[in-house]
Specification:
This protein is mainly alpha-helical. The protein has one domain (15-321): Na+/H+ antiporter like fold (Up-down Bundle), CATH 1.20.1530.20. Helices cover 80% and strands 0% of the residues. α2 (34-58) crosses α8, α6 packs parallel to α14 (296-322) and α13 packs antiparallel against α14. The longest helix has 31 residues, at 168-198. The radius of gyration is 19 Å and the shape is globular. It comes from Pseudoduganella buxea. Pfam families: SBF_like. The chain crosses the membrane at residues 37-54, 75-100, 106-127, 134-158, 170-188, 235-257, 296-318.
């Protein structure tokens, strides 16, 4: 049977992933430094605030209220996201420290403490013939609770584990840069929600532009600190393998748990996709607020790699789910 090259298209990186690679490449060749870096940092802070304002404005409260009746599914998704992932990350920490650098290990732990994605979770659930309304609710709830839970988890298991608790100024920064804009977006949704929903396709460029700006400034500083002297090809391959193993374990456990708890096939698809993903859109700006700039490039690298792996693997899974017979 002739080889079907079209089947390889599902493994092709998306446009945004390619843009991330370009941002890393530009930062490697033309890093922003000096006074320009200070200005870029201020612009990035404003962009992060705008990003979380739009997150709040786009989050439909109606979807969360409507989905409360399916609380078992949503509770399981939240447990996969904020309990299972962190437990696996903490359990794997000794092994990760043996094969990765300390900053990459912190990045792996941070990845485990992030909320789920919204757009791709819903899209994969729809493609896999899952429970789409439940996916909307679970993914939205995950992002809402992540605003509170991720900083708490980082403070308890990463910052505290390195010898100190979260400082008051760090907490205030989180509140001012993440929580206040998010809540402002939720309040303003009453007046701008219709406009935001109608222009989602255009507003995504603000989301993506903010993330690209954070990535560029983070890798600029990392390059100045000697990133490419610390990160060998062998280390990058090892990190990719670790991300693949982590994703495989979570996918397997989420599927097994949902089956054992007696969920329907449609609900299983929703749980698997919403419970196994991590949000790049939320994670990169959060990392900018939570961690020191000097180590930011290495810390967000596991998330960037995991993001692409999860998209490729879940695209294949969604197509397999779609072909099932009920």
């Amino acid at each position: 049977m002739p080889f079907n090259f079209a089947s390889l298209s599902r493994f092709k990186p998306d446009t945004f992933t390619l843009a991330l690679l370009v941002a890393v490449a530009v930062a490697s060749v033309l890093p922003v430094t000096g006074q320009a870096a200070i200005v870029a940092g201020d612009v990035t802070a404003v962009a992060i605030g705008l990003l979380f304002f739009l997150h709040g404005a786009k989050l439909p409260r109606e979807a969360i209220v409507a989905g409360l009746t399916h609380w078992r599914l949503h509770l399981l998704v939240l447990c996969c996201t904020f309990v299972l992932f962190p437990v696996l990350g903490l359990a794997a920490q000794p092994l990760a420290l043996a094969v990765l650098t300390p900053d990459l290990t912190v990045g792996l732990l941070f990845l485990c403490m992030l909320p789920s994605t919204v757009q791709s979770s819903i899209a994969m659930t729809a493609l896999g013939r899952g429970n789409v309304p439940a996916a909307v609710c679970s993914a939205s709830a995950s992002n809402f609770f992540g605003i509170f839970l991720t900083p708490l988890l980082v403070g308890a298991f990463i910052v505290h584990g390195k010898g100190g608790g979260p400082q008051l100024d760090a907490v205030l920064t989180i509140v001012m840069q993440l929580l206040v804009p998010f809540l402002a977006g939720q309040v303003m949704r009453r007046w701008i929600g219709t406009w935001v929903d109608r222009h989602k396709a255009k507003l995504k460029y603000i989301d993506q532009g903010s993330i690209l700006l954070v990535v560029y400034t983070a890798f600029s500083e990392a390059v100045a600190e000697g990133l490419w002297h610390k990160l060998s090809p062998q280390l990058l391959v090892t990190l990719a393998v670790v991300c693949c193993v982590l994703l495989a374990v979570v996918l397997g456990l989420s599927f097994w748990i949902s089956r054992r708890l007696g969920f329907s096939r449609e609900d299983e698809v929703t749980i698997v996709f919403c419970g196994s993903k991590k949000s790049l859109a939320t994670g990169v700006p959060m990392a900018k607020v939570l961690f020191a700039s000097s180590s930011l490039g290495m810390i967000i690298l596991p998330l960037m790699l995991f993001h692409q792996i999860q998209l490729m693997v879940c695209a294949v899974l969604a197509q397999r789910f779609a072909r099932r017979t009920d």
